[in-house]
Amino acid sequence: MFSPGSSILRETITVILAGGQGERLYPLTAVRSKPAVPFGGKYRIIDFALSNCLNSGLRRIYVLTQYKSDSLNMHLFEAWSIFNPELGEFIYSVPPQRKMNNDWYLGTANAIYQNLNLFSDKKAKWVLILSGDHIYKMDYLKFIDNHIKHDADLSMACIEVPKDQASRFGIVGIDENYNVQSFIEKPPVPPEIPDKKGYSFVNMGIYVFKASVLKDVLLEMESKKIKALDFGQDVIPYMVKSNLKVIAFRFIDENKKVQPYWRDIGTLDSYYAANMDLISVTPEFNLYDSEWPLRTYQYQYPPAKTVSHEGERVGRTLNSLVCDGTIVSGGLVERSILGANVRINSYSYITDSILFHNVWVGRHARIRRAIIDKNVFIPEGYEIGFDPEEDKKKFTVTETGIVVIPKNMVLKD
């Protein structure tokens, strides 16, 4: 391994693709991009990729934004303005500026093509490209070290999945030396990993390129008028056919669990399941590892508290995550995640739900299996999640029955 002060860190540019619309997460993405969606009570989804960068020693970061980026831009400024440009560190939000033509970002590779100047101007040797909407823990320095060791033009991080489940993903085919032979989206018969029969390699959307090769390939494809919008569909197959050295890197999980953890949260149901995992007795994803801190914006609120009154007005939280500034006053909260500055009033009942920042729950209200976005006021006696047909008339309800209420929605008594 290279030491944190070595040239590898100074000569690597990190680009995080964070313009995702996240249509299947609507209405959570009605007012924000997918990377800006809250997760785990206090975090945003992009915090996990950024925390990986911080823990890997990478401090030269561009975040490419596009779709409804106000919330994301504010979060980057408030939570991540920790880098010192005087020391060569930075984090910059880069919107589409139509540098090459009149197009917005048309795909992952096109977003990089429109910003080739970013790593050309910084004279980077390597470019690390990440997705801003995945949740996992990874030491990118190990990944880049392996890339340099094998003198690869492109390295792809891959996670192994059972072959019988692999047809749902983009699958990377390799030879015995981990040279990439193919990349196929959702193949009916996925190729196996040579040294692990019964498993296939899934593309994680995490790449490290030689900067000069990345630039040459994109310019060459443009000059030949070959479509180069997406890395997986266009650029990687072109590089493999051109006999450039493309290798796979087996994902090394820093989550310290038996099963490697990597989630691309694409639907409301998968979003709900990933959040609910955090409140289980032994969560698959570990938020409490002091050796791998997860950074986010810290609201300057007082500690959370429960308040009990005389009689049956007992404030209780059971098997739940509760963020700063939240008060549970005489209500019962079970198996739920309460964001910052939430207020639960007397005789109310919350179970198996996710409440975002600044939600107010009135007396005698009952909420079950719901996701409630920011700044929603739940009137006294209101019920959510108990009458599916009534809920479907007013709210988004998922296939598994999760009720989703959008940000700032006004509920009538």
UniProtKB/TrEMBL annotation:
Molecular-function annotations in GO: ATP binding; glucose-1-phosphate adenylyltransferase activity
Pathway membership: Glycan biosynthesis; glycogen biosynthesis
GO biological process, one term: glycogen biosynthetic process
Transmembrane segments: none
PROSITE patterns (UniProt xref): ADP_GLC_PYROPHOSPH_2
UniProt keyword list: ATP-binding, Carbohydrate metabolism, Glycogen biosynthesis, Glycogen metabolism, Nucleotide-binding, Nucleotidyltransferase, Transferase
Subunit structure, interactors included: Homotetramer.
Entry function: Involved in the biosynthesis of ADP-glucose, a building block required for the elongation reactions to produce glycogen. Catalyzes the reaction between ATP and alpha-D-glucose 1-phosphate (G1P) to produce pyrophosphate and ADP-Glc.
Name of this chain's protein: Glucose-1-phosphate adenylyltransferase
Organism: Ignavibacterium album (strain DSM 19864 / JCM 16511 / NBRC 101810 / Mat9-16)
Gene giving rise to this polypeptide: glgC
